[in-house]
Amino acid sequence: MGVAAKIAPSMLSSDFANLASEAQRMLDCGADWLHMDIMDGAQLDGLLFDNVVAILLLHFVPNLTIGAPVIESLRKHTKAYLDCHLMVTNPLDYVEPLGKAGASGFTFHVEVSRDNWGELVQRIKSKGMRPGVSLKPGTPIEEVYPLVEGEYPVEMVLVMTVEPGFGGQKFMPETMDKVRALRKKYPSLDIEVDGGLGPSTIDMAASAGANCIVAGSSVFGAPDSAQVISLMRKSVEEVQKNY
């Protein structure tokens, strides 16, 4: 038997005005984790045109979403595993506040952590969180190998199957080559996929070797969210029982 299936509805697609009840609804529907997208946003207001590109480089994605205060508030209402995906330029700045807030997992991007990932992983673990690393569709999979094999290894790799920063994008099937490479190299590793996952794409992700599935609009927008979660879990379990 392979690694366990973990279905993580993306709370970015939930009704933010009712976050606690939405979280409980997802758990009642069979979710294992709650996926929390933390983005740093791009501050463009009042800037001169010539400065726009320089400012954009200071932020990992253009959208601004939730932060540690929201995680802390949600933690008061649930004991669920809060799977935090940080699409930020300086993840080290978020370790202490998210640890205090009650985050369970802390997944940072390899693109912004090439020089300090060892320190970052140590600090994440010291705050009682589970470290993970993510990579964008255009980043070679080989870049995360040292983080899985290092002295202070991450415990999960998140393969983005869309460009980070926006929900509702179409699944990029070409990213499955990365998942297959990871599963072949690391049979017991948690491999997460995020972006465009739903009933029409789950089999591709599961057959490639992904066992942690992030899904937003396909779950929250479904007439029967529990049915979608169950379908995705069965797809992963069917593949993993053959490992």
UniProtKB/TrEMBL annotation:
Cofactor note: Binds 1 divalent metal cation per subunit.
Protein name as annotated: Ribulose-phosphate 3-epimerase
BP terms from Gene Ontology: carbohydrate metabolic process; pentose-phosphate shunt
Active site: D37 (proton acceptor), D194 (proton donor)
Keywords recorded for this protein, A-Z: Carbohydrate metabolism, Cobalt, Isomerase, Manganese, Metal-binding, Zinc
Substrates-to-products reaction catalysed: D-ribulose 5-phosphate = D-xylulose 5-phosphate
Organism ancestry: Eukaryota, Viridiplantae, Streptophyta, Embryophyta, Tracheophyta
Pfam families membership: Ribul_P_3_epim
Similarity field: Belongs to the ribulose-phosphate 3-epimerase family.
UniProt GO molecular function: D-ribulose-phosphate 3-epimerase activity; metal ion binding
E.C. code: 5.1.3.1
